[in-house]
Amino acid sequence: MKKLKVWLPLLFAVTMILGMLIGFRLYPNVNTGGFFKTGKLNRVQEVLDIINNKYVDTVYTDSMSQEAIDGMLAHLDPHSYFIPASDREEMNEDLDGNFEGIGVEFQILNDTVNVVNVLAGGPSDKAGLLVGDQFIKVNDSLVAGNGITGEKIKKMLKGPGASVAHLSMLRDHALKNFDVARGSIPLPALDAAYMLNRESGYIRINKFSRTTYQEFLDALQKLLKQGMKKLVLDIRDNGGGIVDEAVNMADEFLGDDELIVYTEGRKSPRKEYHARRPGNFETGKLILLVNEGTASASEILAGALQDWDRASIVGRRTFGKGLVQEPFMLGDGSELRLTIARYYTPLGRSIQKPYDKGREAYNDEVIERFHNGEALHGDTSTVHAGHVYKTPAGRVVYGGGGITPDVFVAFDTNRISKSITALYVNGTLGNFIYEYYIHHLPLFKQYKDASDFSNRFNQEEDVWKSLGNYVKKDSISLAGISEDDRRLLQTRIKALFARLVWHTEGYFIVMNQSDPVMKKALELLENNSPMP
After folding, report:
1. Is-catalytic flag, 80?
2. Which pLDDT belongs to residue 30?
3. Confidence class of residue 33 from pLDDT cuts 50, 70 and 90?
4. pLDDT at 527 over 90
């Protein structure tokens, strides 16, 4: 017993140290405060402490620390960044695919917040709110006629789940009160999923959040039940998100064990992602639509399908973001998202475009494509010099920055005419769309769905006359507008009407009918020749 008493403290100390070491190895990203370090302060912390203790005036070291962190990150890649604790929740909403709120879309018109959409089955729908209702008060705060902004009203309507928002609304000139219990409001990743014709389907994905793969899978199975044999998958302007969601989507198109993507970095050993299960669409003809807004996880999907000759990539060169960020939680609840590795396609192509000329040049690179002619002519020979690869089928593909499409479609310059920009500057067009819709509800209720509306709507002349009269109050004239501009504007108005009734799917059903990229995709689907 005497010997045990002598050795017991030592055994306890060894056990505690081993436990600490094991815990540190299991959770390496937790900020431990430097327990195993020497305790010596680095220069940045030393300077901050001296300023805090000795400076002549009061200083705010939190803001100084923020600036110091931003300064350090400015010397790294463009995608390593710091998120203050106050911004973390909002920053993560898009990735989570939901937020806590009341479930309405609104538009501010004449200093009044108008309901333009009520989420079916959501909190506001259950409480009885309708399209056309106008907000007067939220709880005890007046929100009508006092210069309310979109950001302010959003913050007022959001809140913890099950908390109640007390709303005073104006409906048909009568004041009505509603108590709306906030709930989980989805932020869908799926914009549209519908049949283009009897055998070809269309799916558009706007991001890769935690719900993306399931939304996509549900849409894919729905279209397969409708007889889909060919698919157009639209990921234009999809800025990416969670890699696993993109990998799971790629798995639906690729054979078992085919490599989808791998990552590798100075301190991160190679990690491979493979197809693991039988996919729902491994053999049907597949067209993938991309543009300069297609980035990150979207480029992983595009690169894998191109490298395996699984899809024809149509559109314009993608953004070129191929860096892996890992989140590191800091002690005050803030977060550092640090680049730890690069993405590579199955053939070994780096997706990441160069960033050695600084962040400003990096951020302006996409705009430069419109100035140097790439967006109009697709000439990427100087961009990809020295980065040429061949797919198993012998197709030439490129590395060095983004995914170059197999079939280039130029940017449609008709869509940016200066003669109609005045309609967008002060929200004139959006206000007109809403007011015309509210005053013509019976007109829109006669259509059974967005496709029926797209095919049968024939009120263009009446809408055009109404628009001409409406814009005069903002000193805008439609006189002298070109026929091309008029056709473009009428299509956009029709699509925006469809969005009010059938949401984003309605919008794309209308817009896709005149979209040159979609026209090329349909041409390729109907052509039975091998992929480009």
Report:
1. no
2. 47
3. very low
4. no
